Amino acid sequence: MKKNKFAIILTLLLILIAVLLVFNKNYTSTLQSKNTDFAVLDTASVTKIFIANLDTNEVLLERKKNGWTVNETYKAQQQKVDALLNTMLKLRVRGPVSLASHDNVVSRMAGIAIKVEVYQIVPLINFFDRIQLFPREKRTKVYYVGDVPKDNIGTFMLKEGASTAYIMYLTGFKGFVMSRYSPILDDWRDHGVFRKRLNEIQSVQIEFNENPDQSFKIEKTDRHNYKVTRLKDNFVLPVYDTLRLLNYLTSFNDIRFEALLNTGMPAIKRDSIINSPFLHRITLVDTDGESNTVTTFWKKTFAEHLEIEYHLVPLDLDRMYALVNENRDFVLIQYYSFDKLLRPLQYFEPGKIDDWY
Questions:
Q1: Of 11, 157, 167, 202, which sees the most CB atoms within 10 A?
Q2: Are residue 50 and residue 136 in the same domain, yes or no?
Q3: Please, what's the b/e burial string for 103-136 (b: 16 or more CB within 10 A of its CB; e: otherwise)?
Q4: What's the domain range around 61?
C-alpha cells in the first residue's frame, strides 16, 4: 500500500515537473516571439503608421477612403506607402545582435533610431482566427529602427520594452531598410500637380509671359465641343484641330513635380525667384468649379549649356521652378513632363507648322 502511495506521489511529481518545463518553454518562446514580432502579416488591416525621430521630425500616415494621407493634410505617395507596407510584411529575423556588440548597438540606437508605431483593425474577441468579433483600431506594434551591421545586410531593430535588439532583413532583398521609414514629411507627400481626365476638365488657360500672342484659353461649351480664345484680344478661333486639342487636354491626366523646395533653398533666393517675372501660368478649372494654377519660372544654372548655335546659355534647359498648390509649395519641375502642356495657340490652328515650340 505504501509502495503504491509512493508511486502515485512520484508520478504526480514527475507530471508537475513536466508541466513546468513545458510552461517555461512556451513562456520563453512567447517572450522571444514578442521581442522579434516586427512583421505585419495583414497589411490590409493597417490604418495608421506613425514615424518619428529625435530631431522632432514626425509623420502620421493614415488610410482614408480615397487613399493615404500624411499628417492629416496632404495626400501621400501611394508608391512609397506600398513600399513601406511591403517592407513590414516581409521583415524576417536574421538573428539577435551579438553579446559583444549589443550594448554599443543599443547605445547608438538611442541617438539615431526611428520610432515606428503601427495601428490595425483587430477583433476584440478572436477564437482561433475563425470567429472574430467587435473589430476596433489598436496599436499593435511599437519598435525602433536603427542603422546597419558592418556587412550592410539587414537593419538593427528593437521592440519597445525589449532588452534584446535584432538584425532584421527582407526576404529577397540585400541591403537595409532604414530609409523606408523616413520621418521627413516631404519624403511622403504626393508629387501630383494635375490629375484630371478629359471629361473632368471644364477649361484650361495658359499665359506665356514672354510671348503673350500665344496665350489662350480652352473652354468646354458642351459635351463634345470646345471654344479656343486668344487671351490678348479675346479672338475666338473659328476652327481648331480637334485631334490636337483632345490630345492636349488628355495630357493633364498625370503631371507631377520632381521635388519640393520649400525648405531646401535659402528663403532669400526662393523669394527672389518668386518675385521675378513668371514664365508660364497654367490654370485648370474642373467640372466641379475647382481651380488649380501652376506658375513657372526660369531656373538658372551654374553649369552653362550650349545651344545648337553654340551660344552659352546660363539657364537650365531641363528644369524650371514652379509654384503649385495655391502658391503654397515651391517645387522643381521637368520640361520632360510639362512640355506637352506648354503648347502655344498656333498648335491648335489647322495647317500651322510646328516651328514655335
A1: 157
A2: yes
A3: eebbeebeeebbbbbbbbebeeeeeeeeeeeeee
A4: 37-188
